[in-house]
Amino acid sequence: MIEEYGSTETGSLAGECPHGRMHLWADRALFEVYDPATGRVGAEGEGQLVVTPLFREAMPLLRYNLEDNVRVSYDDCDCGWNLPTVQVLGRAAFGYRVGDATVTQHRLEELVFSLPDSHGVLFWRARAQPSALRIEIEVAEEHRGAAVAELTASVRTAFGVDSEVTGLPPGTLIPHDALTAMPDVVKPRSLFGPDEDWGKALLYY
Ligand SMILES: [Zn+2]
Asked: What separation in Å is there between the alpha carbon of 81 and the centre of ligand 1?
């Protein structure tokens, strides 16, 4: 089903061989597998794929964590390519499947921030479920109905999927004291898969 694997930042990272397995282009990049639970980095096994492209013309990337969950193996494949194989178990940086669509944080964020400024929507989180997208936004009561209706409509237009949008009082997703004291925030993240803890939304890391 997936014939090529990569990202905007890294370009193509893997391709499918005649035997239907994805092989990492280990001649073009160094691949490591990071286990967030133990903090250990290894050459193979299951974890997040970390990439150091070897031939990158613009800004170099060193040990770039794609945050995709993968399983890397150096077992031989009948194709004889002599390249490690990768199974992509979850594509955090690339988006999540909802129905027939792939929903990415970037595109979803564009929709949320395309709501009229007057609605005052700043904070949101979303959970990609197999059949629908569940979204929570912080919005003042007087704009809640309009914001929910507009976002539901724009998600349907953009992705062709149903969404369940909930408007919450400001301060619900992000406590106000956290806004002024959040030293741990490295990378805000708002879109999560069906099995992930979206309690980490915006305070991720
Ligand atoms: Zn192969």
From this structure: 6
